Amino acid sequence: MTLTTILTAAPVEALPPETAVAAVETAAATSGEGISYLQLLLHASLPVQVIMLLLALGSVLSWVIIFRKYRVFSRANDEADDFESRFWSGADLTQLYRAATDRNRVVAGLEAIFEAGFREYARLRQKKGVDGRTQLEGAQRAMRATFAREVDRLEHNLELLANIGSTAPYVGLVGTVFGIMVTMHGLASDQQASIAAVAPGISEALFATAMGLFVAIPAVWAYNRFATRVERLSVRYESFAEEFSSILQRQSHVEE
């Protein structure tokens, strides 16, 4: 008797329904269809859905801030380069001041610091009995005040970006805890617990953690990047204010 004859003659028994269903689910899981994140979100418990919604809002807000601050810093660098090229080209200070005040736009950055310092210097110079030292100190005070406003403008919303980056992982962790709690509560009333009953709850719990990290990583990276750019621009503004003060000091000595 051959092997083919033996296999043909052997009785064929049907698989139990539970085994058949498990086999079908295993085959579907290994068929390469992947994970449906939308299904995880839609079938998650209510607390996890609320947490995921908060994380999604935080992600949108952080990306809006990132794109806006990128434009702000790019414009600040371009304006600083343009003004420094005009300032150090040997142009008359009075002409630069008139150009800063005659334009139909709001000056910012180095040009705003220059405009504030020269305006105060010119105002004090027109007063009688005001010496060169007082004129210089007044210009320096005006430049310091404008410098503080410009740095504050650059730092606007960076604190919110840092808060999103630092709290998003913990918010995602709260969603993980809720997902596991709901899963364990459901298993308490199930007499025949299996991996198929545990998997959805564990999946939504891990998805909340992953979503928290997805929100936090870009926000933290962008905050560190923008904080460095704020520091560099601050040093650039402060250096210009010192150099401009030296120019005003020499000019006041010449006039005396």
TrEMBL record:
Keywords: Cell cycle, Cell division, Cell inner membrane, Cell membrane, Membrane, Transmembrane, Transmembrane helix. InterPro entries: ExbB/TolQ_transport, MotA_ExbB_proton_chnl, Tol-Pal_TolQ. The keyword NAD does not apply. It is a multi-pass membrane protein. Residues 111-238 form the MotA/TolQ/ExbB proton channel domain. The chain crosses the membrane at residues 46-67, 160-185, 205-223. One of its GO terms (biological process) is bacteriocin transport. One of its GO terms (cellular component) is plasma membrane. It is found in: Cell inner membrane; Cell membrane. The Tol-Pal system is composed of five core proteins: the inner membrane proteins TolA, TolQ and TolR, the periplasmic protein TolB and the outer membrane protein Pal. They form a network linking the inner and outer membranes and the peptidoglycan layer. PANTHER family: PROTEIN TOLQ, TOL-PAL SYSTEM PROTEIN TOLQ. Part of the Tol-Pal system, which plays a role in outer membrane invagination during cell division and is important for maintaining outer membrane integrity. Belongs to the ExbB/TolQ family. This is Tol-Pal system protein TolQ. It comes from Arenimonas composti TR7-09 = DSM 18010. The gene is tolQ.
